[in-house]
Amino acid sequence: MSYSFNLLMVLPELVLTLGAIALMLVAAWGGTNATRGISIAAVFVLAGAMVALAGPSTTGGLAFGGLYRADAFAGFAKVLIYLATAVAIIMAPRFFARSPGEDLRPEYPILMLLSSVGMGMMVSAGDLLTLYVGLELQSLSAYVLASFMRRDGRSAEAGLKYFVLGALASGILLYGISLVYGFSGSTDFAQIALAYGRDAAAGTRSLGLMFGLVFVFAGLAFKMSAVPFHMWTPDVYEGAPTPVTAFFASAPKVAAMALAVRVAVEAMGSAAQQWQQIVTFAALASIILGAVAAIGQTNIKRLLAYSSINNVGFALIGLAAGTAQGVAAVLTYLTIYVIMTLGAFLIVIRMRDENGNPLESIASLSGLSRTRPALAWAMAFFMFSVAGIPPLLGFYAKFAVFNAAVAAGLFPLAVIGVVASVIGAYYYLRIIKTMFFDEPAGAWANAEMEPVESGLIALSALFVSPVGYLAIPLLGAWSLAAARALF
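User: That's the sequence. What structure does it adopt?
Assistant: Structure tokens below.
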């Protein structure tokens, strides 16, 4: 295969990399005054990367000797990643403009682009080396983004916690990679699959390969904030700037989950019985802890953090099935989850008191249906949908993963998931009760006309409404085609 065709397969990453470098030069000369233009340009760069997915980037196969995989699965994940990153860039300018003493600097959209490069490499990894390089590129950008508000002690604390625990998780992952390499003799996913397959065919278990599997999944569990590696999530989500929190809850979550799916199916598919036990435990623990721990939260961002842990558990049920239908259910779930989450955070950004200071307490939503009825109804749609209450689209997302689990013979897992989802519905309904039945709290700041943000909220609410079911045939066919690319 020619080198030029290899470059065509990595065209989205090239577009993002060259765009980030060009905007970095503009930032060096233009300074803070160029921030708005750089943010707009960054969104167009992401759009260009999405257009680049239309070619060999989703159909080319293996590039650079198997280090990179350009297939439909990676293309699906990248569309979600680029969309979520673009929304996180769009919502940032007004947030920082209304934050006393904090200015949006041009490094913010550039770091978002560089993080997207890393996430793109993660979901297209065909080798453990590509996996690790992509994951670290994404993480290094994320550490800086978490502590982006320099004068805010909570933001600095969030960045430090994320960095320390992220370094620990990277060490665990790297140790697992070294074990897998040492006992399989290769870092290529196909060769690793053969090594696990030889063990399965011989009816033996290589202790080194099993330990490598455990450590690799432990490192990936941290990146997707699955229990028991979730401890960083509430503090980082609360302390990071709200647009960054929205970013953490969407794009990196998709990248980590897609990477875990690819590693499980392509590299360790022959050891499915072993990793299914790990995934099943992580799924149930994430669902239960995310539901129970969120009940006592009074901060909306911490509640959404536990909600993200809870939703990761539901997505892992689809992975535990280990089938093409299960992987398709994971992709469908991630699509609906990302849209619900971004819509909720777009409303959280609107939460400001009369002096323009950000509000994060759930109590500040009291009586919102009387003061801001449109926002209250949109938030109700998102909360009902995340809770999985029909006829909103979040119900279909849960139905898809439960159906895949039942089809794979994991009936007890599906039953426990259904029961645990009832627990999680409590705190979502509490938010709705606060907005519609409590007396209004203090007045919010006067809302300026924000057509882009308002349009995004409206589109997200429309998508999770019953109207969104019209997209199910297309979404189902696309996700199934992407899933089959792995098998």
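Residues 86 and 320 are 31 Å apart (CA to CA).
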